[in-house]
Design a protein that fits this description.
mainly alpha; globular; Four Helix Bundle (Hemerythrin (Met), subunit A); 125 residues
Length: 125
Amino acid sequence: MSFMNFTPEINVNNESLNEQHRRIFKTLNILFRSISRNESSSDIRTLFENFVCNFLRHTIYEEKIINNMPDPLCENHIDDHAMFLGRMTGYMESFENEEYVSYSVMLNFINNWFINHIITFDQSI
């Protein structure tokens, strides 16, 4: 069972970015399976942190590319990354403080944001 699938509709014109997106999707699918199997919150937290680290590496790489582009959307693109990372930081703090995290809300947000972000911003790279 997969949570996120890399489809032609979200393909971008940069194979390195496509590969990074595939890797992030794979990480999210592992997290989704862990949640679906009702694994320990410690295991889920570790997988979530792994996802955030992968996403942060991807963001650094992607922002190096877009900072060299004369694209008027660059600032919005970077702001979108910052908003997402802020939200992920909130989830990480909740995990750290052993507060309740609605996994379905978290996963739905990630899925919707990621697909929308790729279509809105990444496909213009």
